[in-house]
Amino acid sequence: MARQSSHRPDTDEPGNEPVESDSPTDSQSRDAESPEAATTDQKTGESAPADRSLWEKVRIDPVEIALPAGAGFTLRAYRPANEVTPTDISDREGEDVFASRSRGTEIEEDDETVVILDEELAEQFAEADEEEAKADGADKADTDEEPADKADQAAKKEADTEEVPIFLTHRGKLLLFKSPEGLVTFIRSGAPHDLAQLDTWEQLVERVEPADIVPLDQDSYELDLVVENLRGGHDVWDATLLIEAGEIARDLAYALRLPAVLDMLAPGSSLDDLDEALRATVSGGLVSGFRGRRRLRKIGAQTASLGWRTIIGKISAAVDWRD
Q1: Tens-place pLDDT, residues 184-230
Q2: pLDDT tens digit string along 93-152?
Q3: Closest Cα partner for 312 from 258, 269, 236, 240?
Q4: Do residues 255 and 167 make contact, with C-beta atoms less than 8 angstroms apart?
Q5: Distances from the Cα of 208 to the Cα of 182, 211, 216, 307, angstroms
Q6: Which of 66, 117, 166, 180 is such that its CA lies 20 to 30 A from the CA of 132?
Q7: What's the CA angle centered on 28, arms 25 and 31, to 5 degrees?
Q8: 242 CB neighbour count, 10 Å cutoff
Q9: Which 3 state secondary structure label does DSSP give 202?
């Protein structure tokens, strides 16, 4: 999200002496809300980074998420899959996270039903993929396979130790707070939630203050801007915005057990292809960047925006707004 920073005038020049006032200026008010302005160097007037020692110790981070209904704060951690219990979704009627997943998602818009299938863009990407494979000399070689039992054991061990996201959730709902004070009040309340199972939770309860709820830039997500940006067409697509949206959506889909969202963002899906093409344009170098931009041109803006609207709608439906 856009951050504001104050500018301190050069007091060495005449006429630039700061004027004292009992009420903060608009710039100061914005700074008070800005994570980067959590502390200020009295000598230089520049914002100092917020103290991250608490979050590094407990291995939990504050997160800010903007949705169409508003922006809110929550918490996120990463732990090995075998150390955490997923959120309870027994209250969610008619949804089974382990059920067979549909390959398509229906979206109702303007009294019409649009069916978005993972195969929709497959043909569009086929030509580009073939050319890239030839250019890179990407010929797959046969490799010796491990015995089935050893391979299965290795895969199970890897799955158990892989770090997965866990949020401040309760019974399948993401808890979002409109203010740092509201989040801290909840943390101290002893109310039930899924992060209470972490071994570092009590340390956070004892030490956290509202001033600590300062998400890093990379932990602030603007899901409310995604659909409008995609509707604007290829020339205005914001790669950073869309890539970060994909990251938080995948984390939330896993933590909230939203299989439809996981499917829509799974490797090989249309929206995952969009994500890969965007990443290539940002950091893929001259050749890969050119190919990424070419692939983006083959992606329909309407299809992408409709798909993302569905994802954001499902995430929004799983939010429990507090304070």
Answers
A1: 999 999 999 999 999 999 999 999 999 999 999 999 999 999 999 99
A2: 654 443 434 334 444 444 443 444 445 544 544 555 565 556 555 445 454 555 667 666
A3: 258
A4: yes
A5: 12, 8, 16, 38
A6: 117
A7: 155
A8: 20
A9: helix
